Amino acid sequence: MVVPSVRRTNERPPPIQVDRRRCWKRHRSLDNGHMTNLLGEPPATLLPDDEAARTDLESAMAPAQVAARHPTYAAAWATLAESALASGDAVAAYAYARTGYHRSLDQLRRAGWKGHGPVPWEHAPNRGFLRSLHVLAEAASAIGEDDEAARCAQFLRDSSPAAAQALSS
Questions:
Q1: pTM value > 0.85
Q2: Distance CA 51, CA 70 (A)
Q3: SS3 48
Q4: pLDDT by position in tens, the chain (length 169)
């Protein structure tokens, strides 16, 4: 049996030459010169409705009682935060808003959210999260946490431009 000879060298093959200008030009021509996210945006995250908590909050029950009875219901925490901020208690508003925000992050992750993507204002169960995020930004600003206020405001705009507009007016 004849074994073919194998030539072994320490030489690497030459690198593949890519004309980056051509690739960029082709990419730009596909989208009128604007950069695009080639991976696409994740689908909108829609939180489930908590009918019992919503009914309690819409009735005459105090928001603090609703939050105690339904601690994962962000709308109750957002209502408490909004009331505290309106009465001038920025520290309490910050605490309530942060609680609503963190409870919402847990729910968003369970709903398939990966840390980014739309959380539409138009879907009513998302509003507790978005309101908490908005008040968290305002309360952070009121207590001098300017970096956090800016991050929260940007997060709100990224999550739902409609919420940012509705809540800022």
A1: no
A2: 11
A3: coil
A4: 666 655 566 667 667 776 665 554 444 444 445 455 566 789 999 999 999 999 999 998 999 999 999 999 999 999 999 999 999 999 999 999 999 999 999 999 999 999 999 999 999 999 999 999 999 999 999 999 999 999 999 999 999 999 999 999 8
Of the candidates 131, 123, 127, which has an alpha carbon nearest to the alpha carbon of residue 152?
Answer: 131
123-148 per-residue burial string, b: 16 or more CB within 10 A, e: under 16: bebbbbbbbbbbbbbbbbbbeebeeb
Q: Rounded to an integer, what distance in angstroms lies between the CA atom of residue 165 and that of residue 169?
A: 6
Tokens of 99: 């609680």
Beta-carbon contacts of residue 23 (< 8 Å; ≥ 6 apart): none
Q: Which domains does the chain have, with CATH numbers?
A: 51-168 (1.25.40)
Residues 6+ apart with CB under 8 A from 99: 77, 132
Residues near 81 by Cβ (< 8 Å), separated by ≥ 6? 92, 93, 94, 96, 97, 100, 131, 132, 135, 136, 139
